[in-house]
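Lab meeting notes turned into a lecture example. A postdoc, R.K., suggested we walk through two folding results consecutively so the class can see how the record format repeats. The first protein's sequence and structure tokens come next.
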Amino acid sequence: MGAYDRSSTTRLMETAMTEMQPITLYYSPQSRATGTRVLLEELGAPYDLHALNAKTGEQRQPAYLAINPLGKVPAVRQGDALVTEQVAITLFLADLFPQAGLTPAVNDPLRGPYLRWIAYYGSSFEPALMDKALNREPAPINQSPYADYDTMLATLEAQLARGPYLLGERMTAADILWGVALSWTIMFGIVPKKETFVRYAERITSRPAFQRITAADAEMAAQHAAAVGG
């Protein structure tokens, strides 16, 4: 009976994916879009890659500005649905493929915390990160979207210390978003090499999906550089 149920579920999943409109990922290698491509791989989602050569400024040309007027990647399109903003893309894709188990259902007690930490990435971590990286004076604490950098980071550290994943024992799409981001920001020295951050990032970046995309990114980045003679 169990084997029959599993095969039936597999057939339903395959049928749903066959009937689903294709996903296009607008992409540049070694950018914020890397995390989105890793997520697509983790979800087992079929997608088409529309690569943009940032070294030639392709993301600032009219063709792509019609997709995202900000000239930023990633962006994804599925049929008439066009989604920009990394946080929105993460939620959109994970909900599109619930069978992958990377998104808590609406009635799951983890759904609220899951949404909280994905939103925290965009509303607190990213603004704090840019102020820190550019040595900008942050806004007064009562006007800052992230209070202050140390508090923002300490709050994240306390959550990750509960581990092994952001929400405890269960890995979600939020971990792909955070794990890839922390890997890059630790490497560039913006986030300190604290054991909690380093071990968490390594847990995500050691996964086969990240390793595959890292290798593919290196090859694509070299091709893009060669296209401009560099």
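The second example is placed directly after the first for contrast:
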Amino acid sequence: MTDGGLEATGPHVLETGVLRLGPSEARADIGSPPSPEPALPVVEADIFFLFDSADFAPGESAKLDRFAVALEDPAAAAVTFLVLGHTDAKGSAAYNCALSARRADALAAALAERGVAAGRLVAIGVGEALPRNAADPTAAENRRVAFAPLKAADADRIVRLARLCP
């Protein structure tokens, strides 16, 4: 939904689920049954950006503060996180890849400014390739940012995700 120039991604601040990369590496399943492909657990974050921009919407500072505090919790302090930027399917694929990368970078930078070690954040834009709502590729809920805790075994998945937006 677009409201006053802001992109809204949905009513929830956080939604947990999994990201499964199948043979096409072009879909995200949230809350679906297990598949043979190992899942990457993700937290979908409703961080709002100005429309067609990587600038945060007014009022997002408190939400960013809460994310930074959560990432600095002792239980998560040694974890590296993947920050995935997403867009809807409006615009060209190349433009959406660039926009999603700028959004992921903006979120990683904002968290680093709040004390999260920059080395713990790996920002990747995947454009429109992994929609939350595949039935409506231009839906507002496809414009989002997601987090995933990373382990050494996830290196191959990061390479595969990075290839979605060369």
